[in-house]
Amino acid sequence: VNQVAKLTLVSSACDVVSTAYASAKESHPYIRSVCDAAEKGVKSVTEATASCVQPVLTTLEPHVTAASDYASKGLDKLGEKLPLLQKPVEQIISDTKELVSSRVADAKDAVSS
């Protein structure tokens, strides 16, 4: 999970969502009250679940470690094959707009001629 969170695309997408969430909470009092209640509920459930789950996690730790190592190697390979994962969301959007604009211009030129 940490390795996925460190990917530039994922990290920048989380920043965009976080900014939108904070802005929505700030701009709309009703949304703020609903979000605050939801956040408190999630925190309570997380705290209550943590103590129950800990013994299970301790038992499964060797398996989780093996799965984590395997996933880490897979993410490394995925990162090599998809350099897009190392770009921020804003750059991907900009590059996509450029590409679409270029293709539309090419199609327009082809139709004109």
From TrEMBL:
GO biological process: lipid storage; positive regulation of triglyceride storage
GO cellular component: cytosol; lipid droplet
UniProtKB keywords: Lipid droplet
Cell compartments where the protein resides: Lipid droplet
InterPro entries in the cross-refs: Perilipin
Pfam families per record: Perilipin
Family: Belongs to the perilipin family.
The protein, known as: PLIN3 protein
